[in-house]
Amino acid sequence: MPNFSPEEKDLIDKQKKPTEQMPYYYLARRKTLIQISEDFEAYLILQTAAAKAKIQTWLKKTSDANLARADRDEILKRYLDLRKVDSQKVIESIDKKLDSFDEFKTSLLGTPEDANRYASVTELNEFTEVVQRPVDELTLLRETAYMEQNITALADKYLTEYGVSKDTQREINSWKTVFASYQGQPGGAQSKSNTLSNIRNKIGF
């Protein structure tokens, strides 16, 4: 427990709640409710009405942004699902063409008994370079599709772990409840012994 002045202790004692009545906040990443500490309770009690109003304003902005993100994330999730399917189709299609060319190249430069029988023939190698040019482009397209597939998977994982959900909205609402659970101090500014920076330093925020 931080060391508070006698004046601050008196203010805290007037509003502090029994342990069983202290509010909880919801931690979305753990999907669990956590009861606030006595240190944080003291912080809440020593805040002025103006300071708490500012906090509630930012919570509302966060909530509004969260709801806006929910619509955006839903659209993005559908897009990513489509891109994953499309990328896989592109890769499978190109793989068939590459396999077909490999078979042709093998038959061109060798025989069933010796795959490299004619590999040293200059003209055959020059001819192979000519017919392989479109294949090189296909290889590049496959690499591009593969990269897109990986990026899409990472984006989808991020949305799953950090995107907007009922849990994130519940988390925001729980903080609204926590900050509204204590009346705090009247006035638009804290006293010299009760400034926001002073309280933060004592509590360690």
Give an account of the 3D structure.
- The chain is mainly alpha-helical and 205 residues long.
- It has one domain (6-184).
- Helices cover 70% and strands 4% of the residues.
- The chain contains 6 helices and 2 strands; from the N terminus they run αββααααα.
- A two-stranded antiparallel sheet has the order 1-2.
- A hairpin with a 4-residue loop joins strand 1 and strand 2.
- Helix 3 packs antiparallel against helix 5.
- The protein is rod-shaped and about 95 Å long.
Rg (C-alpha, Å): 32 Å
How many separate structural domains? 1
The share of residues in helices is over 70%
- The number of distinct β-strands equals 2
With strands numbered from the N-terminus, the spatial order across the biggest sheet is 1-2
Structural class comes to mainly alpha
Largest sheet: 2 strands, antiparallel
Give the mean pLDDT: 87
Poorly predicted residue ranges: 189-197
- How would you describe the shape? rod-shaped
Order of helices and strands: HEEHHHHH
Which percent band covers the strand fraction?
under 5%
Task: Please outline what is shown here.
The chain is mostly helical and 205 residues long.
What order do the helices and strands come in, and which of them pair?
Elements: H1 6-15, E1 24-27, E2 32-35, H2 38-46, H3 49-109, H4 122-162, H5 166-180, H6 196-203
Antiparallel strand pairs: 1-2
Features:
two-stranded antiparallel sheet; single chain; 6 helices; mainly alpha; rod-shaped; 4% strand; 205 residues; 70% helix
